[in-house]
Design goal:
There is one protein chain. By secondary structure, the protein is an alpha+beta fold. The chain contains three helices and nine strands, in the order ααβββαββββββ. β6 and β7 form a beta hairpin. The longest helix has 17 residues. 20% of the residues are buried.
């Protein structure tokens, strides 16, 4: 739809934002355009080419949710686990099967909340501070309670469209994985494209 004409000697900035066109026939067109812009804004789009603000929280949530989905689901399918437990902090060395003992950084509340929403179609997600709180007794195979899976995430390393995330998953004594995932932005979407370094499976 074309822009409104600018009077001679004027410019676009001189037109009052809420001015109705003098031609009554054009008023419904203006109202339709206003409603369309409002609808697009609610959908996350816009009617202008305004630059997008940097949002590191959204980036982290998109990357971490991609990793967790890859670890607990088949592509496009529910996880099959009634609950996914995620440590509420990142752990450097999360890919080390001998014990992730690196620097610990708490996930901000906003990241935890947005991760839960992003992963809701996959499974119920609960953040915990202590992995031992959801691991059963050795006599029962040290299995994760409730038939769940425990995921530990490391910090995101890298800038731009390629990053690496160390992570591990744990179901029980003989059901754990440790690896560093390579995650890349392709076709406007983050995807796990492989691993880097050793991969361990118990």
């Amino acid at each position: 739809m074309g822009a409104m004409p600018v009077p001679n000697g004027g410019n676009a900035a001189s037109i009052a934002p809420h001015m109705e066109p003098s031609d009554p026939a054009r008023r419904p067109i203006l109202r339709m355009r206003t409603l369309l812009c409002a609808a697009l804004a609610l959908a996350g789009a816009g009617c202008t080419d305004a630059p997008k603000a940097s949002d590191p929280t959204a980036r982290a949530v998109a990357i971490y949710s991609t990793v967790v989905k890859h670890m607990v689901t088949e592509e496009g399918q529910p996880s099959g686990f009634p609950i996914v437990y995620i440590l509420d902090h990142s752990v450097a060395g999360a890919a080390d099967p001998d014990g992730a003992t690196g620097v610990i950084r708490d996930f901000p509340a906003q990241i935890r909340a947005r991760l839960q929403r992003a992963l809701a179609p996959v499974a119920r997600v609960e953040f915990i501070s202590d992995r031992e709180s959801v691991i059963g007794p050795p006599g029962d195979g040290s299995r994760v309670e409730g038939g769940g899976i425990l995921v530990t995430l490391g910090p995101i390393h890298g800038e731009g469209d390629r990053v690496e995330v160390a992570a591990s998953s744990y179901l029980g004594n003989l059901a754990g994985t440790w690896q560093t995932w390579v995650v890349e932005m392709t076709a406007d979407r983050w995807r796990v494209t492989g691993t880097k370094g050793p991969v361990a499976i118990s």
